[in-house]
Amino acid sequence: MADTPVVFVTRNVPDAVEARLRRGYTPRINDSDRALSADDIVAGAEGADALVVTPPDKVTAEVIDRLPGSVKAIGCFSVGTNHVDLDAAKARGLVVTNTPGVLTEATADIAMLLILGATRRAWEGQAMLRGDDWHGWTPTQLMGVELSGKRLGILGMGRIGQAVARRAEGFGLKVHYHNRRRLSPDEARGATYHDTPESLLAVSDILSLHCPATPETQGFLNAERIERLPTDAVVINTSRGDVVDDDALIAALRSGRLFAAGLDVFVGEPNIHPDYRKLDNAYLLPHLGSATVETRNAMGFKVLDNLDAFFAGQEPPDRVA
Ligand code: DGY
């Protein structure tokens, strides 16, 4: 019997996080660092008191049902929790936690990178240079869209949406938003509120998605909603791939109805829709939103703060189930 709680961790974690984990727990780490199947998760959980899971780990109702009775808590190494069936976890009496607040700035930075990369055709420029296909400056080469004076529509004005809005001010963008709750004037900092997503779409030269993946937001940006966007609009997604209807977005990028998209998240990661790779106007990143040393350490420490509270018999600060 281990002296400290056994924690099954589905991926390698940053060194500083692992060091702290080893001080308080008996870790069992999947150091293959590859996504685990349902069977692998269940097998890895054998004899564990808690699991630490990441967005690619699908902790479905079936997986939860098959977990050994020893498992009492699941710490999500993420703020998003759509990979865990929270209802099934609750029904089974499992405590589930996440990592809100600490990835706000890093994710907002990536949203800005996508906005700049998509509007200024950065990927095409890179491909030209790396493919030894640049024949010098010309007045019409890779002309993009200027940000200053454009309208940025933010769907979901939580922590990350607000952090993007703060950055956008510096680029001269006019911020519009839709959110379930209308922000106070202090929080909104002059951003224009829209009481429906449809009203927001109509003014979004650039639309940045920051809503969580829920049954209500599944496939939100479909063909009908894309049609509401201004001509040559740009779509940015750093939330979850599920919020976008891939076929509709790809069709609009291919036809030129949209100028470009900047995407950090995809349905079925890492197996993204293959047509995205064929589109010059899709600026793509592999889910890097929170990928800074500072943020990944902070996420790991938050996972551990929550486990510490749980095993000390206290209410974990970031409990979601
Ligand atoms: C999260 O925490 O949900 C992010 O998607 C990870 O970058």
Automatic annotation (TrEMBL):
Q: Which CDD domains match?
A: GDH
* Taxonomy, superkingdom: Bacteria
Molecular functions (GO terms) = glyoxylate reductase (NADPH) activity; hydroxypyruvate reductase [NAD(P)H] activity; NAD binding
Q: List UniProt keywords, sorted A-Z.
A: NAD, Oxidoreductase
Q: Which stretches make up the D-isomer specific 2-hydroxyacid dehydrogenase catalytic domain?
A: 7-320
Give the transmembrane region(s). none
Instruction: Describe the location of the D-isomer specific 2-hydroxyacid dehydrogenase NAD-binding domain by residue ranges.
Output: 113-289
An example GO CC term for this entry is: cytosol
Q: Which PANTHER family match?
A: 2-HYDROXYACID DEHYDROGENASE-RELATED, GLYOXYLATE_HYDROXYPYRUVATE REDUCTASE B
UniProt family annotation:
Belongs to the D-isomer specific 2-hydroxyacid dehydrogenase family.
Q: What is the protein's name according to its record?
A: D-glycerate dehydrogenase
